[in-house]
Design brief:
Elements: E1 6-10, H1 15-26, E2 33-38, E3 46-49, E4 52-58, E5 69-72, H2 76-88, E6 92-95, H3 111-114, E7 126-128, H4 134-141, E8 149-158, H5 165-179, H6 211-224, E9 231-237, E10 244-252, H7 258-267, E11 271-272, H8 284-287, E12 293-301, E13 304-311, H9 315-330
Parallel strand pairs: 1-2, 1-5, 2-4, 5-6, 6-7, 8-9, 11-12
Antiparallel strand pairs: 3-4, 8-10, 10-13, 12-13
Helix pairs in contact: 1-9, 4-6
Length: about 325
């Protein structure tokens, strides 16, 4: 498919930005040209788009005038400053940051759940992509909605890559230091992450809920049409480089057939692992490097379903949804 569409990936050097570029190349995204854009401190860097090497352009010098579509993966501060500029120049924007997720009039979209939200958005639309902890959770819950969900209780086990490259480097440095009998320096997190678990992600409010817990609760409820009070969320950071996991309990209003639940999950495209196999569960290690949302350890106790979910937080939680939204928008004549 030939096209004159030019796109920009803003935050191209971030973990999500690099994964977006990889997926654009792998999926043969129909663009005449892709620009790699990032903050001024990344000026002079290069990134890969398949076999191509792209020079990273500083966003404060970049013109969006000839760009039909911009994918932002650079964080909320940069999005708040430059998304309006991109839209004023006529570009459609797909934003993976918290900047606009709760803003009235901005659709929050996970294409496998609510792609219909992308229809008839008008000129230079803005689409928000959910938190990478939210979308795999919502994908696992969506097939259960017809069974009448009463309440969801979820504990997340989140990889350090969710905090970016510096967090990964810090965990690696701390691990090396501990094996070398040296003090482990702590900068990114409040406490050491190597060989540890941190049961708070972000600042807490007056109720004791962390920023991440509020994000997961509110965005999941919005995606699925649930009430926020139907979700109880606890979020922890664990010493894993890539791959988030979720321990989920879903209370339904009545008893259910476990085999029918499995069929619903498979029909929705989730990857189910049988407990009859040796090691019949999926860990973050197996989930990393692909776009699958992996479900294992399904069990029923009365009207409560328990399950374990793992997914690559960068590819399956974030980048693939940015690219799928971009593919849908690129198919709309207004961008061509």
């Amino acid at each position: 498919m030939s096209t004159s569409l030019q796109i920009a990936v803003v935050g191209a050097t971030s973990l999500v930005g690099q994964a977006v570029l990889d997926l654009l190349a792998e999926r043969n995204f129909p663009a005449a040209r892709v620009f790699a854009v990032d903050s001024a401190e990344q000026d002079g860097s290069t990134v890969s788009l398949g076999n191509l090497e792209l020079d990273v352009r500083p966003v404060d010098e970049f013109s969006f005038e000839n760009v039909g579509l911009a994918i932002f993966a650079a964080g909320s501060e940069l999005s708040r400053q430059y998304v309006p500029q991109a839209r004023d120049a006529g570009a459609a924007v797909v934003d993976f940051s918290s900047a606009f997720r709760q803003e009235a009039g901005v659709p929050l979209v996970a294409p496998a759940i609510n792609a219909a939200e992308l229809a008839d958005l008008g000129r230079a639309p803005l689409v928000a992509v959910p938190n990478c902890t939210v979308t795999p959770l919502a994908l696992a819950l969506a097939p259960l909605l017809p069974l009448d969900i009463a309440r969801v209780t979820v504990a997340t086990y989140q990889a350090v890559s969710g905090s970016g490259q510096k967090a990964m480097e810090e965990m690696a440095d701390q691990t090396t230091a501990l094996f070398s009998h040296r003090d482990a320096e702590v900068n990114v997190y409040a406490k050491r992450i190597a060989f540890n678990v941190l049961p708070q992600i972000g600042e807490v409010d007056e109720n004791g809920d962390s920023e991440e817990e509020r994000s997961v609760r509110d965005e999941t409820a919005r995606l699925l049409g649930l009430k926020p009070e139907q979700l109880e969320v606890s979020c922890a950071r664990v010493p894993v480089f890539f791959g988030h996991s979720w321990a989920i309990q879903v209370e339904l209003h009545k008893e259910f057939d476990l085999e029918q639940v499995q069929k619903r999950l498979k029909a929705a495209g989730l990857q189910l692992v049988s407990r009859d196999k040796h090691g019949g569960y999926v860990s973050p290690m197996e989930a990393t490097g692909n776009e699958g949302v992996w479900v294992s350890r399904l069990r029923r106790h009365g009207n409560v379903l328990s399950l374990w979910v793992s997914a690559d937080n960068v590819r399956a939680g974030a980048a693939i949804h940015c690219v799928r939204i971009a593919e849908i928008l690129a198919g709309q004549s207004a961008l061509m």
